[in-house]
Design a protein that fits this description.
Blueprint: E1 6-10, E2 23-27, E3 46-49, H1 53-56, H2 58-65, E4 70-75, H3 79-88, E5 94-99, H4 105-118, E6 123-128, H5 130-143, E7 147-151, E8 185-188, H6 198-216, H7 223-245, H8 251-267, H9 274-286, H10 290-305, H11 310-320, H12 325-336, H13 349-361, H14 363-369, H15 373-385
Parallel strand pairs: 3-8, 4-5, 4-6, 6-7, 7-8
Antiparallel strand pairs: 1-2
Helix pairs in contact: 4-5, 6-7, 6-8, 6-10, 7-8, 7-11, 9-10, 9-13, 9-14, 10-12, 10-15, 11-12, 13-15
């Protein structure tokens, strides 16, 4: 018998049916089950992911863009790859340009812009880790050229700016402003990460994992971004140890690179939340490379904010395959040999004292992070000494 909360509906048209059409009983569901409203920005970036893609996919992607005169910017470790690419490009209109950390980034950007103008380049290709990709993005924006990026590490420089916040195009604002011509195509090839030193692999992948945690700890993250971030954490946690254990294997490297893409791209469309504000405030006062600092701070920050974000930590723990997110991240860092203290990164006692004093004076950081100043200073002290993370 039907009740007022039920209705008779004809069988769905895709089901096979005989002469006598059946009817199915569907019980009305509560409105609380309706998907909550959300906003999700999507960057117009084409992603190509495949082993050996640096050999098989670059030229087809340049053809899609209609690129005829290409400037190839690469780090020293990728000189051979860049040379092979330029030699394989038809018409002799490819110009290689080396990038070095030891030289002025500003000077190299100016040189890239000058070469692009002189050669009438219509596309920029970048091969390398974060420093190269960031520099190439700036050069591409200045020259108003599309960029084809081939990352050789895991930290998402193709999507995330050096400060850890999504890049903003000139004249636009907001967390998900269009990255404009600076990120037209990203080609992920796990083979390009072979040979990456273990400590760089660990640092880069832990940074990518931290991006995913940032997204899950952001109240305004869309469910799409959160889903991508959670899966990204899962892939990194599974792949990173294998990438270090098997330096020339591609299984762990492909999973880690895929996870890094998911976490970085989800962060790029997520507005900054309290957790990210806290991370960046602490990074600023530490005087160290942000790529190194974030993974060290992460378990301490999560422990300090665990009471405020229990559901986020539960999702992180589930993605890590453990019962406790804080412990899981700390154990993963230990397993892959990542730095576990600010002291290991070269921070001295003078630096610690300066950082603590700056945090005590920074009322904005404490307010944005929704924590008391004394809690912030305890986080930094514990991270400096590499102590076991403790909650509030």
């Amino acid at each position: 018998m039907l009740t007022t909360n039920s209705l008779l509906v004809p069988e769905a048209p895709w089901r096979p049916c005989g002469a006598d059409r059946k009817k199915v009983l569907v019980t009305a569901r509560s409105m609380s089950e309706v998907v909550a409203g959300f906003t999700h920005d999507v960057h117009a970036v084409r992603v190509v992911f495949a082993v050996d893609a640096h050999r098989t996919s670059v030229q087809p992607e340049l053809d899609r863009l209609g690129a005829k005169a290409v400037l190839v910017m690469a780090s020293a470790s990728q000189k051979a790859v860049a040379g092979a690419l330029t030699a394989a490009m038809p018409g002799g209109r490819a110009q290689p340009l080396a990038f070095s950390r030891s030289r002025s980034v500003v000077g190299q950007l100016s040189r890239a812009y000058e070469v692009a103008a002189r050669e009438e380049a219509d596309c920029l290709v970048a091969i390398g880790s974060g420093a190269v990709i960031h520099a190439a993005r700036q050069a591409a924006l200045r020259a108003e050229l599309p960029l084809v990026a081939l990352p050789t590490s895991y930290a998402g420089a193709e999507f995330v700016s050096p400060s850890g916040t999504p890049p903003l195009s000139p004249g636009r604002s907001g967390p998900a402003a269009d990255m404009s011509p600076a990120s037209r195509v990203v080609i992920y090839d796990p083979a390009l990460t072979v040979g990456l030193p273990d400590h760089v692999t660990a640092r880069s992948a832990m940074r990518a994992l931290a991006y995913g945690v940032d997204v899950l700890c952001t109240p305004d993250a869309s469910p799409v971004a959160a889903m991508m971030a959670e899966e990204g954490i899962r892939q990194i946690a599974d792949g990173m140890p294998d990438a270090i254990l098997h330096p020339h294997g591609l299984v762990g490297r492909s999973r880690t690179q895929y996870g890094g893409y998911l976490t970085a791209s989800s962060l790029a469309v997520t507005p900054p939340g309290p957790h990210r504000a806290l991370c960046e405030a602490v990074e600023r006062v530490c005087g160290l490379r942000h790529a190194d600092v974030r993974p060290v701070l992460l378990p301490h920050l999560l422990a300090a904010t665990s009471v405020k974000r229990p559901l986020a930590l539960a999702r992180v723990a589930e993605a890590l395959g453990c019962n406790d997110a804080v412990q899981g991240i700390a154990e993963l860092a230990h397993e892959v040999g990542a730095a576990r203290s600010l002291r290991e990164l070269g921070m001295g006692l003078d630096g610690l004292d300066a950082a603590l004093e700056a945090l005590r004076r920074d009322e904005t950081a404490a307010r944005d992070a929704e924590l008391e100043p004394e809690v912030l200073t305890l986080v930094v002290e514990n991270a400096y000494h590499g102590r076991t993370p403790v909650g509030p």
